[in-house]
Amino acid sequence: xxxxxxxxxxxxxxxxxxxxxxxxxxxxxxxxxxxxxxxxxxxxxxxxxxxxxxxxxxxxxxxxxxxxxxxxxxxxxxxxxxxxxxxxxxxxxxxxxxxxxxxxxxxxxxxxxxxxxxxxxxxxxxxxxxxxxxxxxxxxxxxxxxxxxxxxxxxxxxxxxxxxxxxxxxxxxxxxxxxxxxxxxxxxxxxxxxxxxxxxxxxxxxxxxxxxxxxxxxxxxxxxxxxxxxxxxxxxxxx
Length: 239
Prior knowledge:
Spore Coat Polysaccharide Biosynthesis Protein SpsA, Chain A; two-stranded antiparallel ribbon; 8 helices
């Protein structure tokens, strides 16, 4: 399995709230968020782990280059991009062919939930993509995911006023390189934002299925760090 991490954002909200470290290096359970993700991927059949970070996060670049000694599958792309969709496009130019799992750096999940998700995608020969979704909403502007009765994705919504959606996106996406030509087209047409690329996938007839996970924490604000830490600690206490 190939993995990719988008860690190219500025983390401006955390900085404004007094967090001096770049977001990827914020520590949870004693290690940087990005290191935790990479080690989880390495434990789950990672053939290649490609990370994109921006040109200004030199601390993150240094950390990742040092981590490459421990995780030789790790590749680093340094590029400042205007959106997560553009970051994915930069990743697509260097990633190996085939299936891959993409996450944002601030997506916090239980490793056992993630293991079930990756195993389901590796075994899935029917769908073009498997999206991790959750009922638990903690984002200010969540991306709502509408599905049919079989959890096939029918729409991505900015709002859920009509109650069409049962889930929100968890920031974890598994798909194949079949999506890359459409991504190229979105870039050429000036489409922006990851959620609009996801809408383009549905409009183009890609078969996407939702994979429900009960809780995924998104770290956008200083207060989210404590929430994520408590979430991970609660998981440890149940083992």
